[in-house]
Amino acid sequence: MKLFTKIFVRVFAGVLLLSATTFGYFLYEFQKQSLEAVRQYECVDFQRNIREFNRTFEQQNAHGEKKEIQNLIAENIFRSLIGSYGCLFRNGEEIANYSAYEFDYGELQRLAENDNSDNFGDFGELILPIQTVGGRKLLILCSEMQFNEKSDVYEILYYKDVTDVYERSRSLFIKGIVFCVFMLALIGGFLFLGIYKAIRPLVELKEAAASIAGGNYHIRVSAKGKDEITELAVSFNQMAERVEEHVEKLSRTNESQRRLLGSLAHELKTPMTAIIGYADTLLTVRLSDRRREQALQYIGNECRRLSGLSAKMMELTGLYEGEKTITFSEIRVAELFQRLKGLTAYRLKEKEITLITECTPESLVKRAEPDLLMSLLMNLVDNGFKASDNGAKIYVRGDENGIYVEDSGKGIPKEELSRVTEAFYMVDKSRSRSTGSAGLGLALCEQIAKLHGARLIIESEEGKGTRVSVLW
C-alpha cells in the first residue's frame, strides 16, 4: 500500500471513529435527557393524583365503610383520576384495569427488586425501568396505600407511553447518519486534497530519485515553504547538484582520457612503423656505413621522441586523475625565474635565443607547487623556442596578477586559438616530426593552471608572436 493511501485511510478512519463516537454520545444523551424530562413531569403529575386519591378516599370513607364499599369508592376515585392509563390492585390482585395492557404486579415488584438502581421517587412512588409491553415502550409508576391497620393495601399502577421518544431518537439517528455520511464525504474530499498536497513533495522526491537513478542528473524538485519536507527537498537538490557535478567531472575526465588514448595510439603509429621499417632494413639489407648510421640515428631520434611522449602522457594523465599529491608552499617568483633560466639555457643556445625575466616586485611570493609551476614555464618557453627564429628573445614576466610568457615568433592563426590546448593538437603539423613535438605542452599547461586556481589565456597574431598569461 502506498504511503499516501496509508495516511489517508488511517486519518479517515480516525475521523470516522471520532465522528461516530461523538454522534452516538450526543444521541444517547439526548434520549436520556428526554426520558428524564418525561419521567420528572409524570412523577409530579402522579404524585398529585396520589395525594388527591388519598384526600378523596378519606372524605368518602369517613365513617369506616365495609370493605366492599371501600373497594367501590377506591375504584370510582381511580377511574376519575387515572382512567385508562393504569391499573388498581388490592393486596396484589387486580380490581380495575381500563388500559389496553395487562400487568402482573407481582412480576413488576420482582423486577424492581432485581434492579440495583434507585427506583423510588420523592414521595415513595416506585419507578420501574422502561418496559416493552405490546410493542410499546412504557414508563411505569407504582404507589401503595393503606389507610389503617385493618384496611386492605391498595396498589395504583400508572404508565406513560414514551415510544415517541425512542422514535424521535431513531429518526434523529437516521438523519444524523445521512448527515454524517454527507459530511464525511465532504471532509474526505478535503482530507484527500490536503494529504495529497502535503505528500506531493515526497512523491516528487521519489520520482526525482528514480530519474537520477536512471541517469537524469539535471532533475530538481520544488522547495517552497518552511516545513521539514521543504528542508528535505533543499537537501535533496544540494545532493543532486553535487552528484551532477561529480558525474560531469568524471565524464569530462573520461572523455579527456579517451581522447588522449585515441590520440596517443595515432601518434605512436607513425614512429613505430618507421622504427620497425628501419630495423627490418638493417636486418635484411646490406647498407653502406653512412646509410646504416642514418637509419640508426633515425631510430634513436624516434625512440627519444616516444620516450618524451610517454613521460608527458603519464604526467598529463596523472593530473587529470588527480594522482599527484599537490602540496602548495610559499615560493619566491624571482628565484623560480632564475632556476628557469638555468634549466633552459642549453636548449635556447641551439638558436642563440635570449630568455629575459622580470619580476615586479622583486620580493614577490606566491603559493604554488614548485615542480608543476616549473613544468608549466618550461613548456611555454619551449613552445616559444620552437616558434622563434635564431637570435630572437623570449620574455618571462611576473607580477601580483600573474605570470606572462611572450615571444615574437610565427604566432597562431586566430581560428586555431580555441583548440591549441587540446591534447595532441598542433597548429603546424609539419614541425611535429622535426621538433619532436607531440602537441601535449599546452594541454599540460592548462591543467596545471587549473590545479592552481588560475586561468590560462593565449593571445596571438600571425607573424607577430604569442603571449601566454597565467592569471592567479
Describe what this molecule looks like in 3D.
It is built from ten helices and 13 strands. The protein has helices at residues 3-60, 67-81, 105-114, 163-213, 228-284, 289-321, 333-349, 370-387, 431-435, 441-451; strands at 86-90, 93-97, 126-127, 131-133, 136-145, 154-161, 329-332, 354-359, 365-368, 393-398, 402-407, 455-461, 465-471. The chain is of the alpha+beta class. The strands form three sheets. Strands 1, 2, 3, 4, 5 and 6 form a six-stranded antiparallel sheet that branches. A five-stranded mixed sheet has the order 8-10-11-13-12. The chain is rod-shaped.
Summed up:
It contains ten helices and 13 strands. It has 472 residues and is an alpha+beta fold. The longest helix is centred in the N-terminal third of the chain and has 58 residues.
Low-confidence stretches: 429-437
Shape: rod-shaped
Percentage of β-strand residues:
15-25%
Largest sheet, if any? 6 strands, antiparallel
Task: State the share of residues found in helices, binned by percent.
Answer: 55-70%
Given helix and strand content, the structural type is: alpha+beta
What's the pLDDT, averaged over the residues? 80
In angstroms, what separates the terminal alpha carbons?
A: 58 Å
Tally of strands: 13
Tell me the radius of gyration.
57 Å
**Number of helical stretches of at least 4 residues:** 10
**Would you list the SSEs in sequence order as H and E?**
HHEEHEEEEHHHEHEEHEEHHEE
